[in-house]
């Protein structure tokens, strides 16, 4: 559980601090308070700090404060606190307030009469309490999702004490960020690493906002580009809500792509370990099967449920190579052509014109490739049994691609 700017403003003893602009950033997480003693802050902050500007050591006219605001936005600090009084900064200029509103950066006014030692002590204590509470809540959720408990009743009682009533039914969402290789291919290693870390932080922040809009308001679990959400069911169509949330986000993330797998709905707390497994299976399909637009629900898997249940991967590989081995070897030697053709043929339900458009080739070229596929495999796409075998083998190939 993280402390937000809104939480800081609500702390006892800090009532004289007031938000003047940038209310859109009230949910920004506060990592630590930092008192700015230099002319600029870009070199001295890492992101997430609540920056206090006093004007004691450097003159803070509107030009300097606008520079600090710009640096605060670029370094993704949590917010700016301007200390005002008769000696140093007498007031906050309207231009600075307008700029903070436009940037969504919280701009808070603090009177010099409120001692900084009291402010930092209150924030520091709240951060420690929030961290301890957050760890406890994460521990409970992780144990439920892993099925790692001796008494479910005791664990649910602890969850309730931590402000997480988990009675009722739930749906699990598993998220993963792909495309890191493409990002590093386009950028220098240091730049790519910085950009990847920034995207991870941004996704985590957006997920927390998404979870905060949900009645349960449970914490987001996540690390290293993977996240887990618990969503109360029934509540609404989580799939459509996530699709609407994901589509514009992925446009901004390119070449990275965030994919989401959802479990079946209506899992009680005792079934969360099963729900997590379902969400992970759905996530594999969301990542490998582009027609799902990055979001897949376990109920949509169809025959893929059976394939996912086969624990001996060797059996699936054997079936794939028995049916499509000649095509795989052909594409390894001559470049990918026959397997993508077969995939397009199935995606367009055997419509040669649509498949040719999908692949951007002439229909005669596609017809020739289909004939080549049948000859190499010794199977016929007109035979329903052969078509079933080829379709299943193609699914195995796409799952392992």
UniProtKB/TrEMBL annotation:
Domain Purine catabolism PurC-like: 7-126
Protein family according to the UniProt entry: Belongs to the CdaR family.
CdaR GGDEF-like domain segment(s): 153-283
PANTHER family: CARBOHYDRATE DIACID REGULATOR
All copies of domain PucR C-terminal helix-turn-helix, residue ranges: 338-395
Protein name, UniProt field: PucR family transcriptional regulator
Organism field: Pseudomonas brenneri
Top-rank taxon, per record: Bacteria
